[in-house]
Structure to design on (417 residues):
């Protein structure tokens, strides 16, 4: 990351090669179609390149940092309502899916990790997984979620917090 | 800090980590955390659970065209900087024509725009600075009234954390163009890492993650999608910090 911060294009390319797939996958999950996911991914990586957004090691891995940037961009796009329409009309993008081939042990391990996190989310009690998914992947605010589900905002906030707490407990070392 | 404030912000920590708080509420949580060791510790404890969520998604292969397009932009930036030197070009150099030399077609229009800036013709100069709650200052903008006849903007600068730009009455940009925020330090301008679009009513917000330490001015220009390495036009909005 130091080389990227110094403007080294090859170092930046290596960062993209390593984390571009995860970034695109997260954007795809949030936006629901390939074109929107490409826009978000490109915006996020160009922001990293052009603004030299500062990576701080103590805040976690480079991957976590990059995915955080992608997530913020995705939320911005969803809140601007630029993609909700496309999302509704793309049948969740099923026709566009092009799953990444499992080529390496690292990718196989990531699929295992994805499965574990999904299972932990699905296993959350009392609709906690639902509010977490609506917020994190859907870009909805707590107020919107409360309206959608017909429950008080306090309940939504409580479920989010309890759900994260439970995820932390269930996934143990993966989130340590 | 009152107990009621603490309870309210503490209750919203999960929503904050999931990005589910509206911008203003998120900023209030950020300000609260600075002075509340209990909430700060709780946030740090829960953060890893939020960080793991992106790993729940199915893996998809980005199209090769995405990398090509991205790297074309990167290579263009490198060429514009004359190599791998990432040092931002001085703002004064840009104003005097550095950027315009690379874009001769824009030279005439740019020179006129610089003159307009220098003479402050049609330039709104409502430099209001007022104190906000919790140590937040709100700065009002100098606005280029030729470009934004009905626009307004303010910059909320908290004592800690990201500053937030709020705009109203801006033009909705077409063709994938975006508004980009820049920071001017010691005469040099660099991207603030904040691109934004506005809603149909012309309103929008942008957080400036880098902080404003040492920043003399915050500027806004209109740029192509993904932002530009240097401003391609004189600022249409500016704030003196």
């Amino acid at each position: 990351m130091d080389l990227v911060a110094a403007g080294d294009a090859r170092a930046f390319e290596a960062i993209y090669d390593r984390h571009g797939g995860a970034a695109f996958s997260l954007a795809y999950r949030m936006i629901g179609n390939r074109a929107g996911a490409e826009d978000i991914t490109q915006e996020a990586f160009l922001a990293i390149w052009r603004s030299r957004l500062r990576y701080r090691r103590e805040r976690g891995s480079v991957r976590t940092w990059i995915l955080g940037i992608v997530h913020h961009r995705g939320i911005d796009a969803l809140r601007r309502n630029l993609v909700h329409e496309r999302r509704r009309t793309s049948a969740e993008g099923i026709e566009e899916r092009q799953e990444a081939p499992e080529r390496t042990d690292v990718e196989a391990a990531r699929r295992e990790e994805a499965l574990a996190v999904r299972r932990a989310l699905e296993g959350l009690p009392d609709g906690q997984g639902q509010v977490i998914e609506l917020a994190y992947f859907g870009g909805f605010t707590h107020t919107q979620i409360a309206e959608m589900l017909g429950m008080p905002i306090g309940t939504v906030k409580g479920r989010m917090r309890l759900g994260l707490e439970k995820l932390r407990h269930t996934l143990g070392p993966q989130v340590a | 800090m009152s107990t009621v404030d603490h309870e309210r912000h503490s209750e919203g920590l999960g929503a904050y980590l999931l990005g589910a708080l509206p911008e203003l509420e998120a900023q209030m949580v950020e300000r609260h955390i600075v002075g509340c060791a209990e909430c700060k510790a709780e946030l740090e404890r829960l953060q890893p659970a939020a960080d793991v969520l992106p790993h729940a998604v199915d893996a998809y292969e980005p199209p090769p065209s995405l990398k090509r397009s991205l790297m074309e932009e990167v290579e263009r930036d490198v060429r514009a900087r004359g190599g791998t030197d990432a040092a931002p070009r001085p703002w004064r150099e840009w104003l005097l024509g550095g950027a315009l030399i690379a874009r001769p077609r824009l030279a005439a229009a740019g020179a006129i725009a610089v003159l307009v800036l220098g003479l402050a013709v049609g330039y709104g100069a409502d430099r209001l600075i007022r104190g906000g709650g919790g140590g937040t200052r709100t700065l009002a903008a100098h606005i280029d009234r030729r470009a934004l006849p009905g626009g307004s903007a303010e910059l909320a600068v908290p004592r800690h954390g990201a500053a937030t730009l709020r705009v109203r009455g801006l033009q909705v940009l077409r063709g994938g163009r975006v508004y980009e925020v820049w920071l001017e330090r010691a005469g040099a301008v660099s991207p603030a890492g904040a691109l934004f679009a506005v809603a149909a009513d012309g309103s929008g917000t942008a957080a400036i993650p880098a902080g404003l330490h040492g920043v003399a001015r915050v500027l806004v220009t209109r740029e192509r999608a993904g932002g530009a390495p240097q401003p391609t036009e004189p600022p249409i909005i500016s704030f003196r910090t």
